[in-house]
Amino acid sequence: MKFASWKSLAALSLGLLSVSMNANAYCSAAQLAGTWGFSGQGVDLQAGGAPYVQLGALVLKSNGAGAGTATVVENGMTFTDVPLVFSNLTLDPATCLGKVTVTVGGMPVPHVFLILDRGREMHITSTKGNQTGLIIGKKQND
Questions:
Q1: Which of 67, 64, 53, 73 is nearest to 113 (CA)?
Q2: Composition of the chain by helix, strand, coil, percent to 5
Q3: How far apart are CA 76 and CA 64, in angstroms?
Q4: How many CB atoms lie within 10 A of CB 100?
């Protein structure tokens, strides 16, 4: 009897975990369409480890492409209206992890990202070796 109860509990737990993971993990590029606000901070290793912070907004289309602007403060210098372009977005709908090229001020930079909160939050970081930091975006409309 104990074995049967344990087995039933294990099967129920796995079933609930599977439903929970599928319900929370499904993502699509179309889900990202809308206006996003973001902020981030990190260090620019190419500039000797200079700290930077940034704030901005962008609009993403249902295919994952988009554009916007940012204000960046790096090592005490302020750069306003820095153009951003999102392109080449790929997304694993089962894990909500993806890759995107973000062209910042005319320079394409590969990034990885994670979608959270059913498509309303994005964490993104550069995969290029000269910068390290975390940018958090929040969807401003649904």
A1: 64
A2: 25, 55, 20
A3: 33
A4: 23
Q: Which amino acid, 93? A: P
Tell me whether residue 94 is in a domain. yes
CB 116 within 8 A of CB 96: yes
50 contacts 43 by C-beta, under 8 angstroms: yes
Question: What is the reported pTM?
Answer: 0.78
**How many distinct structural domains can be found in the chain?**
1
61-96 confidence digits (pLDDT tens): 999 999 999 999 999 999 999 999 999 999 999 999
pLDDT digit string (tens) for 33-52? 999 999 999 999 888 999 99
What would the two tokens of residue 133 be?
A: 């930091």
Structural domain boundaries enclosing 47 = 29-139
